[in-house]
Amino acid sequence: MGTDSDIISRLKELSGMMTAREMFHQVEDERASSEFEIDRVVPGETVRNNVGEFFLVISSYPLTEEHGNTSLLNAQQVDGEAIAVIAGDDELSEFRLDRALFLDTETTGLAGGSGTYAFLVGIGRFEGGNFVVRQYFMRDYDEEEAMLVPLADTFQDAEGVVTYNGKGFDFPVLQARFVTNRVRVRLEDVAHLDLLPVARRLWRMRLGDCSLVNIERAVLGVTRYGDIPSYLIPQVYFDYIRTRDARKLEAVFYHNRQDILSLAGVVSHAARLATAPPDLVEAHPLDLLSLARLHFRQGRYPVAERFASEAYDSGLDADVARTALYLLALSLKRQRRWEDAHRIWCQLARHYRQDIESRVEIAKHLEHRERDLTNARDICAESIEIALTYEGSAITVEELQYRLARIERKLRMNGFDVSPS
Q1: Is the pLDDT reported for residue 7 higher than 80?
Q2: What digits encode the pLDDT tens for the residues 376-387?
Q3: Element containing residue 218 per DSSP (H, E)
Q4: pLDDT above 70 covers what percent of the chain?
Q5: CB 246 within 8 A of CB 42
Q6: What is the Cα–Cα distance from 175 to 126, expressed in whole angstroms?
Q7: What domains sit in the chain, N to C, each tagged with a CATH number?
Q8: For residue 50, what are the contacts with CB-CB under 8 A and spacing of at least 6?
Q9: In whole angstroms, what is the distance from residue 215 CA to residue 266 CA?
């Protein structure tokens, strides 16, 4: 019978097993013999600082560069007031896109968490007559701190940052990596424009899918060539770490640059839609309705009225048309244009049998402004009948009964007989 070492050797021959040392040497041999390291595949440079080195790629675009139906120049010229409108945040009224960073990261995982690395961080900014994108890349995990140090300096000098889902993903990932490497930076102190909520406000009603790739395709008219799906990117990086073959990383760098250019495109397009006169905006009817909602929520009722009217006139299916009319009536009501609003409420009640909300608004107008208590009572009674058979209303039967009782008290005080016939 053979020795233990003979048995282990025999088992290794049969199963193809390798020891950890043998695997390590094989990987090292693969790395040494690779002809496709990152500096031979992607034009860039190795940057050294006092904690190590990393790889940097710089791309420059003239402001006349078009990205779908907009240009970088258009993005540079968006002012803070437009930013505040699309973001629904008055605190961003001083936001300057021409001084902001456009940030996108590629990471080792899409779920985030403390174990997720941002192996590629792309930052675009306006510099002179160009839009310059710098892509910070760590060729291995031991280059992370060297990459993060200049990034921290960049954030410290930034007047604002533009991202797409950055508040939910990119910033938490970067903050975790800064903390882990003891690199001091306060990302929360930087004014932050996250475009994902903006896109959802403007285009979710029409598109549903508000991923950046879908928004740039459906809204900006951008088509990518040579791109890679986001979900494949982590594995491409892991493969590169193992083999040092960077050929598939070309698509990752391209993906990252396109994301950054699309940040500029989305903010430019959104600002144009939200600040142009409603009658000059050419957009899908559902986008017009989204714009009406945007302005209504921020108290610009005349603008909301015009967008709601444009949306309704542009042709919508019955349910969405009802929403447009309802928003139109509310906008008129907030402007104290009672008679105009009343006409819209009546139109809604005629066309939508189950619309209790419109009937309540009609009853309010008849009771408080026209002093027509008899018709107000009839409308309330009709609303109660509908509510008893329809459960979709936000107004309860009890609320309607309370309103009816109040109107009947007023009628009795005025000498009317309100007993059942």
Answers
A1: no
A2: 899 988 988 888
A3: none
A4: 90
A5: yes
A6: 24
A7: 4-33 (no CATH), 38-275 (3.30.420.10), 280-413 (1.25.40.10)
A8: 149
A9: 8
